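User: I'm new to structure prediction. If I give you an amino acid sequence, what do you actually give back? Let's try with this one:
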Amino acid sequence: MRRSHSPRVPAAITRSVLAFVLLLMSACSSHQTPPAEQPGSADAAARELAVLRQRPDITTAVTRYEQLLTVLRDALSARLPWGPWHRDNRSNGTTRSCDPEFTALDGQRVALPLWYTASDGLTHPQWTVARDMVTDMAARQGFRRAGVASDQPGNYEVTLVDSTGAVLSFGASRNAVVEVTTGCHLSQQHPAVSP
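Assistant: Good question. You get back a string of structure tokens that encode the predicted 3D arrangement of the chain. For your 195 residues, that looks like this:
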């Protein structure tokens, strides 16, 4: 059965790509990012390893962000007159490389599935409440605003990043959409993580 609000999802995916570009730009300017002058060198690998060992493994990171998305969806639904949230399985946990931020090690970045709900008729005061809720709740998990937020009716959007380069995107027009792409993390099976 086709949902009447599903045309909003492709626009959300476009925002996801833009958020990923912001992620890469912010990651490249991060103080934690290892120098990129010798990507294949042992020194570069050691620097990258030092940074990535301070982060949880990718499985732990994904679990943490999935929990954050659940808390955000529940809080938004409790406060705003939106219907149930739906998971867009087309982006079901897509794994990406960590280039260009980390090139010497085989770290992973995961795009978690996008969640959406009908938000037709969203007023500007309701958007302000929703935006501030997401921003405040995500800030407790280490996220801060990145780039320019759009507060234009019909094109509401805010993007947040954390210290690992994870990107949280939240927007609303016909549908409200929330999604996260993790920063770079090592897998549990990586030799640097495994005993």
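You can read the tokens as a compact description of the fold. Here is one thing that stands out. The beta strands are 86-88, 94-96, 109-111, 114-118, 144-145, 150-152, 155-161, 167-172, 175-181.
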